[in-house]
């Protein structure tokens, strides 16, 4: 008795009455008890089939009974139900099980036997997988048996034996179960009770496991017995079970039986034929008979709306949507969206399949990106609950990424789908999974991946005899064409392409398109006529009400007008707030997207700027290398000029090296830079080893626009000191200080204890060029330069932070 999603079903059952549209109680109330039971069972069977194993049959029956406000025991009490609701049944339907147990001890005779059977039935078909429920069921079945034997009434003996047989069916003991059912059939045959025999044979056949080798034959025999006994509703129920078997194995026979089912339903006055019409629509749709599929699906929706049976509309509108999409008609999206309009966690079991299908079809018309934008927020708010929903979400995500040409991500999601599909119950594999395999094969054939294409084609082939249709075969021919082309088997490729074109061209003829349009117009016209009639009737009723309440209206007219004005203002305010909120949400989303885009652009620009600094540094090093190679052929003044240029280039190169190696590409840490530049110059001059360097540098960050001229000034000052301050190998010291003066001012000083400037130094072109260069750089930084030659040489400058000098300007 495996029942999945029991907690979810409890919430769904408790919320169904307030979540769905109202059912026309007038239609249901005119049914006798057998037609009500047929409605509960037919709806339960259809829910079971449509949900494809996401819920079990017992849970589907419970959902059906709750939807129509029937007793939960109605599908199971046919043999002893006298049309009256007993007090014990009322307690069970109200969930007051303990009170029902107490009442059992106070009853006697038939009432006690009936309540024992009802309690046994309640526990046997209760959602959940608790072993104690089965134990409780068996306990009450045994008590009912003892009471039935004591009463001596065959009715109760047979009912107890039938319930015991169902118990063994639920526990998987099929042989024992069938033996008990056979005993009930034999007892009724001996009593010459044709009705009892037919019901017993029907129970025996229905309770065989799905796809059992004897099931269809047993159902056919039971159907004949019910027809002979005049049990029309039981005959219809058995036919529904026959369709379930054929639906899995043979769609052609399933369709034939659906047509007979509709005929029998109409003949017995059963108006809820939309369940069967929808089933035919599904079969015709997957087999490519779109005209017939649309006719039956439109009839299903029409009957559903006519009977007011719209509680499970989320299972009917998607059929219309699917047909429209298979005919390349965009209006199918309208029906998918209609089926998920009132989505909630409580009804997720019914609308989630439509949501996934809608996302899949959006790819065709709006592309994979838009489909993902539709899919992701709803998936985040309503995560999938079942295996079927999870695997199909992976599949649709794969389709989206395939459309976006993100083949690796698409392949990843297709692999997830394939792994989960292995766990799916084979008896509930209809057309969706084989067709998914076919589309995945098409994806890999487009990539030229022959091995994976053949792998998925192998998964499709077992389903082709029963699930194949024009649409399937059309796709298959296209894939075979691609495989033959890859293998250079051009003769076979041309043949397969011709077959593909023939099937795709014949898939929807012009005449069929016209016929479809005509049927749609007829459907819309009938809807409009019905709406007009409904409005007319409402108008007449309003006139009667107005005449009756004329006096009251005169007295209360002022109050009514005031209330209407207030209500109108409130509605207007509500709508304005709603529109404002929607606009605000849209604007927030747009701002978020723009911010994300700007952040990405900023990251890209920073990366590019780092690359520029890196290349500038490399180019400067290249220039230095060229100068160094030239220096080998130069002497005296020319050599000195080249070496000075090398030092200046290195000063700038260090800046660019710091920038591309740092996360911050606009500022550098000056203290580190000064130490590295001093180290470089010390290594560049032979006499520098006798000179002691003293550094007092504060940890200061400067903009690159100030750092480069500052570095060049430091280079010139140190170069002059190393070249001229300590002649003839003298030793000495050079002090470098870079400090804060206040919040925005900085000072740089380079002081040596050498021989100081001599008059002949100012006649030296190198020295003069260095001083001019420092002056120009200070002007660009708007800094004050001071040179003092007392007791050596001291060069100092004071400047403000963030003076936006353009360090790429030409320095003359």
UniProtKB/TrEMBL annotation:
Alphabetically ordered keywords of this record: ATP-binding, Kinase, Nucleotide-binding, Phosphoprotein, Signal, Transferase
EC number: 2.7.13.3
Residue span, Signal transduction histidine kinase subgroup 2 dimerisation and phosphoacceptor domain: 611-684
InterPro entries reported for this sequence: HATPase_C_sf, HATPase_dom, Sig_transdc_His_kin_sub2_dim/P, TPR-like_helical_dom_sf
SUPFAM superfamilies registered for this protein in UniProt: ATPase domain of HSP90 chaperone/DNA topoisomerase II/histidine kinase (SSF55874), TPR-like (SSF48452)
Domain Histidine kinase/HSP90-like ATPase: 708-799
Enzyme type, top EC level: transferase
Taxonomic superkingdom: Bacteria
Signal peptide, first to last residue: 1-20
Catalytic activity from the UniProt record: ATP + protein L-histidine = ADP + protein N-phospho-L-histidine
One MF term in the entry's GO annotations: ATP binding
Protein name as it appears in the record: histidine kinase
Natural source organism: Dyadobacter psychrotolerans
